[in-house]
Amino acid sequence: MRDFSTRFDALLAVNPLRSMGAGFRGSHARFGMDEAITGLAILAGVVVATLLLTHLLTREERLRRTNDPWSLFRSLCRAHRLQRVQVRLLHRVARAQQVDHPARLFLEPERYQIGCDDPQFGRDRAMLAQIASRLFAGLDARLPSEQPGPARRPADPT
Questions:
Q1: Reduced to 3 DSSP states, what percent helix, strand and coil does the chain have, rounded to the nearest 5?
Q2: Is there a single domain that holds both residue 80 and residue 99?
Q3: In angstroms, how far is CA 109 from the centroid of its own chain?
Q4: Whether pTM exceeds 0.90
């Protein structure tokens, strides 16, 4: 039994955890500027990594949850390179027609006909027709500039 206890004491004496902490005890124990800077750099790295990860995750959620019809309208106006005067006119048309989603002006050419028929847009009829023909060029739809009558169909290429 004595043989076992001496072996066990020998194993405890070589404990790697005890030897790892030797630099923190006695005359070796010191905390200088190098250790402080290293600790602060590690802390700053952890904080930056956490903030970056949080930003990336919440950005994705924000993009998924965005449902702003007027923001979509502005984006479509930019995509079609409309001038500010034209954007303001379309904004007025959307307000006058009380549409929930003003981007519908980019989907429904008949909204321009309604706008042209509205007396408050009398001076702006030519600009509305110009915008409509630009946005819906090539569609088989009656645009405000066209006269009433049968809808024109594109010629058959064959």
A1: 70, 0, 30
A2: yes
A3: 29
A4: no
Cα torsion through 63, 65, 70, 75, rounded to 10: 20
Say if 18 falls within a structural domain: no
For residue 22, give both structure tokens: 């030797």
Residue 45's domain comprises: 35-66
Specify whether the CB–CB gap between 108 and 97 falls below 8 A: no
Residue 56 identity (one-letter amino acid): L
DSSP string, 5-48: HHHHHHHHHT-HHHHHGGGGSGGG----HHHHHHHHHHHHHHHH
Q: How confident is the model at residue 116 (pLDDT cuts 50, 70, 90)?
A: confident
pLDDT value of position 16:
62
**What are the tens digits of pLDDT across the range 49-97?**
999 998 888 876 666 666 788 888 999 999 999 999 999 999 998 988 8
